[in-house]
Amino acid sequence: MLERNAVPIRSALVLFVAAGALATSPALAGDKPAIGTSVGEMYPDFRLPSLDGGFKRLSDYRGKKVLLLHFASW
Q1: CA dist., res. 27 & res. 50, Å (int)
Q2: I need a labelling partner for 56 at 20 to 30 A (CA). Which of 1, 9, 22, 69 fits?
Q3: Measured at the alpha carbon of residue 7, what is the angle toward residues 6 and 11, in degrees to the nearest 5?
Q4: pTM value?
Q5: Is 68 within 8 Å of 20 (Cβ atoms)?
Q6: What pLDDT is recorded for position 74?
Q7: Contacts of 52 by beta carbon, 8 Å cutoff, 6+ apart
Q8: pLDDT tens readout for residues 8-42
Q9: Cα 12 to chain center, whole Å?
Q10: At 18, is the secondary structure helix, strand, or coil?
């Protein structure tokens, strides 16, 4: 029972950690200006590969509680 529930949780964790890494990477920003958000604003949608070979979008979780972790170390 626990193992079956661990896969979606693990997938979501990988998705959001990767999103944070991509969102904070200046090398991937290209010519686009950085997008910022303030309290109450919607977060920009993004798409990342999932562990099952498909893709997940932030908008797939609309209406659900989502925790986005942004961190860096340098």
Answers
A1: 22
A2: 1
A3: 115
A4: 0.42
A5: yes
A6: 78
A7: 11
A8: 777 777 767 666 666 655 555 455 555 666 777 77
A9: 8
A10: helix
Q: What angle do CA 19, 20, 21 make, to 5 degrees?
A: 90
Mean pLDDT over residues 38-47, rounded?
Answer: 80
Amino acid identity at 6:
A
Of the CA atoms within 13 Å of residue 62, those in its CB half-sphere come to 8
At 28, phi and psi to the nearest 5?
A: -95, -5
Sequence letter at residue 29: A
Provide the residue type at 74 as one letter. Answer: W
Place of tokens 């961190």: 71
Residue the block writes with tokens 């991937």 = 28
Does residue 70 register a pLDDT over 80?
no
In angstroms, rounded to a whole number, what is the distance separating the alpha carbons of residues 15 and 37? 19
